[in-house]
Amino acid sequence: MENEVLEAIRKLAQPYLGADAAGATALLQQAGSADFVLLGEASHGTSQFYTDRAALSKRLITEYGFRFIAVEGDWPACYTLNRYVKGYEDGGANARDALRDFERWPTWMWANREVIELAEWMREYNKYKPDADKVGFYGIDMYSLWESMEAILEYLESKPGSDLDAARKAFECFEPHGRDEQRYGASSALFGEGCEDEVIALLRKLQDKWQYADSNDREDVFSAEMNAFAVAGAESYYTTMIRQDADSWNVRDRHMVSSLERLMTFHGEGARAIVWEHNTHIGDARATDMAEDGMVNVGQLLREKYGDKVFAIGYGTYSGTVIAGRSWGMELEVMPVPQAMAKSWEELLHRTGSDNKLLVFRSSEPTILDTVTLGHRAIGVVYHPERERGNYVPSVLPERYDAFIYFDETTALSPLSREAVHM
User: From the record, what ranges are coiled-coil (predicted)?
Assistant: First the structure.
């Protein structure tokens, strides 16, 4: 069977010469007809994944009219960058300044030179467009409980009223936990001392007000709602996380899908989205062992609801270097990415030639690849190269993605925080 798999890869794979080459043009002709183009990554610290997603995103924006990029990041920090790329004064004087709010570990995920290049391009692209046509950059994750609460209070303090009272009540409920999510989760899950009622009341106060706002204030009103939605998501996530089961993962991915749908509604009829997230979020969970554990993800949920209007592109690498930490909150390091494990998808792709490759599954004839489950490497922000075997997710690649981009050798991301420590 191994030889049959190798032969099928050889027949399907084509050299990948970058986002401006002919192969990418054919890929984008398929992806460009979708409402949601999901661009994955096998790690949060690999330069090639970021630069290639940026290059594909530019073409989706300029040639196919996509309206915004939504990423696996927090709403408040990404909203500052969004204001910068749209040319608003409060976004910062330059892209580096616009990344100032990315203070939550792992800061390098978005505070990096690769994102700076994209941000400057987006600002220039938006420069002469009316506000309604400017392409945005948003975070759809929900870790920003405290930051989102503070953003809501700051916004509402400039517009006093009953909404401010609801915000203060929610903030006061969280305040005794001292910005400690684990402490709040334990209090809520184990002792029933949560803030769900206060958060829902706040969200109801702020929801849909952007629809009636003045055009000059519309996106800021929408941002207040999205911050309230992030607080609600975070409250639910930290409450379920204490049980250490699949529920907290599912809460997070369902939240990201709902955030994405709110963004689509905000941008109006015909809006289309580019989504940047880890492969574990954008690749359909039903094609992996995640399903056995009761886990769903963004790719699965979107496919179930929107079908062929979703186009998912995964990424992988055989070897190289990556930015990661040895444990949560630890100093970032440039770590080696060992040669892929034998008989994994990445190793078989390498064995068919050391060139970069593009595999497009959606339009291809059925092959043995559609029935084979093999390990597919997934590197997180916490990484131990010496424990490589635990970094592989059993996957049917053509079922997980519509296309797959493989880089034979990759290099670490370029963080802004400071020079990364080399192992």
Answer: none
DSSP annotation of 94 reads S
* Omega before residue 106 within 30° of 0, cis: yes
Position 152 scores a pLDDT of: 94
Largest Cα span, the chain: 69
Say which amino acid occupies 423. Answer: M
The DSSP secondary structure of 259-284, one letter per residue, reads: HHHHHHHHH-TT--EEEE--HHHHS-
Beta-carbon contacts of residue 206 (< 8 Å; ≥ 6 apart): 152, 163, 224, 225, 228
Question: Phi and psi of 421, rounded to 5°?
Answer: -80, 130
pLDDT tens digit string along 152-209?
Answer: 999 999 887 788 999 999 999 988 888 887 787 777 767 677 888 999 999 999 999 9
For 72-83, the pLDDT digits (tens) are 999 999 999 999
Beta-sheet strands, E only, within 214-365: 273-276, 310-324, 333-337, 357-360
> 10 Å Cβ neighbour count for 192?
7
* Contact indicator for 163, 205 with CB cutoff of 8 Å: yes
Please report, for the chain, the start and end positions of each structural domain, with discontinuous segments joined by +: 2-422
State in Å, rounded, how far the first CA of the chain is from the last one. 39
Number of H helices, E strands in the chain: 16, 12
DSSP, res 70: E
Q: Give pTM, 2 decimals.
A: 0.96
* Residue 272 and residue 38 in contact, taking contact as beta carbons nearer than 8 Å: no
Measure Cα distances from 111 to 17, 80, 99, 260, 269 in Å: 27, 12, 6, 22, 32
Structure tokens at 421: 């420590």
Q: Yes or no: say if 40 and 254 are a contact pair by the CB < 8 Å rule.
A: no
Neighbours of 21 (CB within 10 A): 14
Helix (H) or strand (E) holding 407: strand 403-410
Q: How far is CA 354 from CA 10, 318, 359, 420, in A?
A: 12, 9, 15, 28
Residue-level length of the chain: 423
Residues 107, 417: contact at Cβ < 8 Å?
yes
